[in-house]
Sequence to fold (152 residues):
Amino acid sequence: MSGKGFDTRKLMTGKDGKLFVTVDGTSVWFASVEEFAVGVNFSNVDFHPAGDIQTYGVPDSVKFTASFTEAVVRDDLTIQPMLDSIKNGKVPTFSLQAGVTEPLAGGESKYLLDECIPDGDTNILEVKPGDIIKRQCQFIVNSVPDSIKALV
Fold:
């Protein structure tokens, strides 16, 4: 389809995305993040009325998640705040911004993720000979993500 309306220069790759974490009211580029994902999970309840062969889905809940893998160089942005909050008897919360920039036209898609709480296992430290030390973190986003800017 070359030259027929499909411009591969507009395709985005991992180099076009960035994750930011808010520290003391300032967004800091989380440059050590290798990959990240922001997702939404819809849950439904099955309803099967008597006399009907079909089962229907009834919307029940929505859950937003954020996860990332980082090369461990910025413990001050994740692990230290987590440990400090836990020492004070609290569950830490984070504010993240996830975005991607379209390389050709410069359009941007950016989302604000507030009230992120750690979910599941968080890898504090894992060392393997010959590998870059990495950490995986998962969060539940306890607010509906705000679209700060949409791709144009």
Remarks:
- Helices lie at 79-87.
- The chain has a mean pLDDT of 90.
